[in-house]
Every structure is written in structure tokens, then in C-alpha cells.
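Side project, low priority. Logging it here so it doesn't get lost.
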Amino acid sequence: MAEALKHLIGPHTARDTADAVARAWGAFDSSAFLADILPALDALELMQRGQCIADALHRHLPDDFEAAAAILQDCLPAPDRTGLSGWALLSFNQYIAAHGRGHVETALALLKTLTPHFTAEFGIRTFISDQQEKALAIISGWVTDPNHHVRRLASEGTRPRLPWAMRLPRLVQDPAPILPILEALIDDEEDYVRRSVANSLNDIAKDHADLVADFVERHRAGASKNRLWLLKHASRTLVKKGHVKALANFGYEPVSDVSVALDLASDRIPFPGELGFRIHLANTGASTRTVLIDYAIHHQKKDGSLTPKVFKGKSLVLAAGERVTMERRHPLRPITTRVYHTGRHGLEILLNGASVARQDFHLDLGGKETA
């Protein structure tokens, strides 16, 4: 059985932290520090364990943040010494975010030094939230840093909707201040950094679809293979939603001369079961057409209304006069993220983002609901 995630931080982490701080600052009372932590640690989960150590650091380090930051800096690895790394530095993130307010230059410099040894993407967000202009002015200077972890921190830490982290409402509302950071890193030599840029643009697309579609259009001309991958990955939410310009950016223009017909293997599906269907396409025009075929299942909700979920299909190039039939089987089985209900559901076919065919089917759960 896999070990619980919380054990990534444990008594060994507290002791390693105590040893590192004691080496950096002779006045540190390691015994009192550990007495504050060890009795409470076992009952806590992962993030709480980090916070417990961070709170103890606050009680046992100097009250002056500048002095405390210098001590923490000396706990990190350097060319002339070993130091703390990995999950032991979660508590450093939490301490800096909580007590570095009003010391943005020192706090961000410390997080920049920390990030090659453990992520600092959560720690910097407090300072972006509190002092956006000042923080972004500092972070923007990281895009040319020789360390790829620091460059990635510039894009990942500024993501408006970074998962598992505090949201940045001002950047959700207006992401323009971080676009220069993303542009500067769009051709970074590290895939690790480019993937972060793509994810940030995808975040932005959830609130500003046209802005991201325009960004992609501007940067697509003459794009290298790596940049083209980045732009496609950044557009994934828009493409899935059928955003017309996002699709056109990758050659999926609106088409009127491709006909689509839909056949269901059965319009009554027992649960669990499979929805079998065929999609018949015909290019009735005189020119070759590039098409993206997706489909949406319209699931019935408890109140009888239907809500769609789009599933990726296939990209095709249809020559003039060409006909193609695609077969698909969509499983309808218990999953933890959905409650199924007996009754009418729908299958919709999307061609380059536009709805072109739809049929309803009946899902039968035998009188039961299931999650």
C-alpha cells in the first residue's frame, strides 16, 4: 500500500530544518523549535505539517523579516555548502508568504533563490496579489535568468488560475500585465518552461477567449515546431469549445460543403453500456477540406435539463467528392465525477466547432441513480 502523501513531511523534515537553521544562526534553539512541532505533527495532513513548521519558524526566528530572510537564505544549497531542498522548503514558502509582506524585494529574491530546489510558485502569489505592479516588475526580470526553474517561476507563478493555489483576481479580470512575460518565454529552450507558458495562456482563455485567439494568430506566422506545439496546447480549451478563430488558427475554417449524417446503433442504452454510432461525411464541394470532428454527449441532470460535455474526435482531410464513415463507441459507465439519470440524453456532432447533427437516446438505469 502506498505511503500517505502527508509523510513527505515528517519528524525527519523538522529535524533537518532545525539542523540547517542552527548552522545558519548560532542563537537558534533547536530543542525548543522541535518541541513546538513534533507533538502535533502526526495528526496533521501534508499542507498543515508544512504550516506547523512555518509557524514554529516564526516563533523562533528573529521578528525582523529581513534578518530572518538572511538566515533562511543561508539554509539553502549553495556552491560552497549543502542545504535544504525538496519538501522541507514548503514551510519556507509558507513562512515567506505570511511574514514577508512589506518586504517584497527581499521576499521575492529569497523565493527566486529557493525555486531551483523546490517550487516557489505558490509563495510568490501573495506578493502579486498585494503589490501587483511592483511584484510583476521584479518577476519580469526573471525571464532571462540562466536557471530554467527561475524562468518557469515567472510564468507558472503568475498564472491567473493556477490549480491548488490562491487565485489572482486582478489578473483574471485583466491578464495584460503578464502577456509580456509569456511572450518573452514563448521560445524558451526548455520544454518545462514552454509548457508553463501554454498552461498560463490556457488559463487566460477561460476568461478572455478572443484575446488568446488573437495572441495565437500573432505568434503563429513562421512558428517553429516547438512554438506551434505551445500555441496548440494554449488553445486546447478554445478548440474544445469550438471557438471559431481558435479553430481557424490551425486550419479548421468554417465549412458549408461537407455534409454530415449520424446513425445510432440503438437509441436505448442500458446502464452500464455503450453508445455506438456512425458519422457519415461527404465533401460535396470542388476543393479539399480540412475538418475536425468532435462530439458532445448531452447528459441529463436531476431536473431533467441537459448539459453537454465535448469529447475529442478526429482530424481529417477530405478530397473533393470524398466520402468517409467513422465509427465510435462511447462508454456509459459509473465514474466518480458524474451522477447519471434515467431518461433522455443527446449526442451532438461538431464539425470545426459548429453543430451539424444531433440525435437523442434514452439511458436506462433500471430505476437507480449512480455516481
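Brief comment: Strands lie at 258-264, 268-270, 273-283, 289-300, 306-318, 323-332, 343-351, 354-364.
Revisit when time allows.
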